[in-house]
Amino acid sequence: MSDTFSTIEQRASYGIGLQMGQQLASQPFDGLDISAVQAGLAAAFNREASAVSNKDLEEAFNVINQRMQKAQEEQAEAAQAEGVNFLAENAKRDEVTVTESGLQYEVLTQGEDGDKPTVDSTVRTHYHGTFINGEVFDSSVARDQPAEFPVSGVIAGWTEALQLMTPGTKLKLFVPSQLAYGEQGAGGSIPPHCTLIFEVELLAIL
């Protein structure tokens, strides 16, 4: 590959193509045609007339956007139903406590008696977050770097749970989507309506 792109200009040009390809791959649609993308790119760069009329381009964009929106809605509905079913079954376990808000938690380690954080506190924690299928989406444990934040500055499920803990306590939280990131999700990492699982250890109240 390095022999094919031997000059600085060729390598930089290839890098631009890689970046554009990565952007396309992050939000693809069914039927995406890379050869058509390349043709459109070349036409625009060479200032050539478009091979597709503006009307047809607009229609195509509208149809694809509608398809993608429908697919996202279907995924969100499926995630919501999956979360509801998971929580209903999980609540049957003896070791799980369900609070009035719908938060579920399991005590993994009980800390010593002492002060508990309030909504105005700042805390230091270690945590490990997964989807209900076990896929990890965030983990201070994996980074080996505890996280510090105000109790009021996190998702509602965490705000509630932290106020139940003394330093040294470790809980496993099962957080319904409405106590997490809800219908909006969180960027590209957490889709809408996802139930989340966290193992949270309260290290200190700061």
From TrEMBL:
Classification via Gene3D superfamilies: 3.10.50.40, Peptidyl-prolyl cis-trans isomerase, FKBP-type, N-terminal domain
Domain called PPIase FKBP-type: residue spans: 120-206
Residues passing through the membrane, by range: none
Entry-linked SUPFAM superfamilies: FKBP-like
Keyword Kinase: no
Name the UniProt record assigns to this protein: Peptidyl-prolyl cis-trans isomerase
Keywords in alphabetical order: Isomerase, Rotamase
EC category name: isomerase
Keyword Isomerase: yes
Domain of life of the organism encoding this protein: Bacteria
Family of the protein in this entry: Belongs to the FKBP-type PPIase family.
Single GO MF annotation: peptidyl-prolyl cis-trans isomerase activity
Catalysed conversion reaction: [protein]-peptidylproline (omega=180) = [protein]-peptidylproline (omega=0)
Higher taxonomy: Bacteria, Pseudomonadati, Pseudomonadota, Gammaproteobacteria, Alteromonadales
Entries under InterPro entries matching the protein: PPIase_dom_sf, PPIase_FKBP_dom, PPIase_FKBP_N, PPIase_FKBP_N_sf
Enzyme Commission numbers on file: 5.2.1.8
GO biological process annotation, one example: protein folding
PANTHER family noted in UniProt: FKBP-TYPE 22 KDA PEPTIDYL-PROLYL CIS-TRANS ISOMERASE, FKBP-TYPE PEPTIDYL-PROLYL CIS-TRANS ISOMERASE FKPA
Pfam families with a match to the protein in the record: FKBP_C, FKBP_N
